[in-house]
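sry for the spam today, last one i promise. struct tokens for design, 159 residues
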């Protein structure tokens, strides 16, 4: 804030404007829940024996989240710089977010530029709005199941 307790420009707001059924893997139907599927076997050493931990988890719930990112500024130069940055980042139409280590595609859906807004003091604001869609999924780690499976004796080598 400045000395008059005003927020200086430019500033950016982000708000979720919609959520829809997920399209991350197409418009296919999901396997009924709460069935768990084997994901991977991880070998670990336990008291001189190799055991495998088998991770089981339910299929994630896909969801599309649509966000509106708005840029408010007094200067046209700021709008041009932000447009350039957005268009460079989404040159291939998508970017990836890594949420808890899982990649989720972020699609650039388009942008709109509102006409300059004038307030009572005569200040002029430019507002640019950008629509972004995250093709995400919901998966609760509490639903994961870890099962110990086969044991194999540790093989020693004689030198």
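last one done:
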């Amino acid at each position: 804030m400045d000395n008059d307790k005003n927020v200086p420009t430019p500033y950016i707001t982000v708000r979720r404007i919609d959520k829809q059924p997920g399209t991350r893997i197409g418009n296919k139907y999901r396997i009924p829940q709460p069935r768990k599927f084997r994901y991977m076997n991880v070998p670990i050493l336990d008291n001189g024996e190799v055991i495998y931990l088998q991770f089981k988890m339910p299929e994630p719930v896909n969801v599309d989240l649509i966000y509106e990112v708005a840029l408010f500024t007094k200067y046209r130069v700021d709008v041009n710089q932000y447009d350039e940055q957005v268009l460079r980042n989404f040159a291939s139409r998508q970017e990836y977010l890594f949420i808890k280590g899982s990649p989720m595609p972020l699609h650039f859906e388009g942008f709109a530029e509102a006409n300059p807004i004038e307030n009572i003091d005569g200040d002029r604001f430019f507002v640019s709005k950008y629509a972004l869609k995250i093709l995400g999924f919901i998966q609760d780690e509490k639903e994961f199941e870890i099962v110990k499976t086969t044991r194999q004796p540790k093989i020693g080598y004689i030198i």
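The two ends are 72 Å apart (CA to CA). ok im logging off now
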